[in-house]
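Troubleshooting log. The previous structure file for this entry was overwritten by mistake, so regenerating from the original sequence record. Sequence copied from the archived sheet and checked twice against the printout by T.R.
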Amino acid sequence: MKKAIFYFSILTISIVFTSCFQEIDKVALEKTTENVFTSEHSIYNSVTFYKIYENTTQEVSNESLGKWDMAFQSALEGDNVLVNYSVSARAIKTGTSVFSEVDKSTAEDLFQSDQWKFNDPAYSNVRDSIALKDWEDKEVYLVYRGSSSLPEKAYYKIQFMSKTPDTYTFKYAHIESSQENEKTIDRTLGIANIYFSFEDGNVVEHEPNIKDWDFYIGPYFGWFETLVSGVFAPYNLTGVMINNEGGVRVSQVFDETIEYESIDLAMAQNLTYSDWKGSIGSTWKKIPSTEDPVYNMDTSKKYVLKLYDGNYYKLRFLDFYNSEGEQGYTSFEINLIQ
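Regenerated output below.
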């Protein structure tokens, strides 16, 4: 178990939910490459989903940050509920199950508490690691919607009322509103998580259908290992999460003596694969120093992906800057292993 240094600087808080689910049918963009792909979107400002094919990697969709507040586990077994990790959203228990008792003064009292929790997407399917792990006890949660939210819209309260094998039912309200809103979220087999916005009061599109993407690149608030080995602290990160729900598995090839070009099918078939969502994560780039204040790629980090269709692909990261020298535009190489 990792040791944790837990600290927050909370500026504001709020949350958003949706009720009616609509099927998501995203069409892949006509943007392909044979081997090397450079993102057209900043890793800091959006979440970009990708699909790997035998002769190309294709961008499926690019989503803005802060458009959702809650994610409800849907297609696979489980009932985890997440807050928006891409904008550093957080949640805290209020100590009461009386919804009307939670108001602006509650937020002010809890503002400096060290009990605020967040979701690191790398551990999003690990119940003990998520912010709302005890949502079924019907205690009212206070939610901070994250860095993309305006201060006056930042705090919401939510209380989960019931669930069935096919639905989640909850009520929510802005922290200063006397109006209570009740919503029911319906599960669907087509998507791993259903996303809800407090501000829209509805389900919103974010994640493509479960078989339509293999990994995404974007920002997230997660656990970062400090200079003390084994000690972790929360930190704003940028990196890659795999579609483990869709069957993607990863093997980390971090041996410096193994060249990327030498990774062949025989080697790939004998590697050990993980379904950990953070198998790729953020450590493929080196932290800048005062002597070298740019992001360099860690050439020792190579990855082999095993997809649900049985194919193996090798992946490495080449750059963190576009042709104009702008930071946050990731270049990576993916090759089918034959």
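The CA atoms of residues 67 and 197 lie 7 Å apart. Archived copy saved in two places this time.
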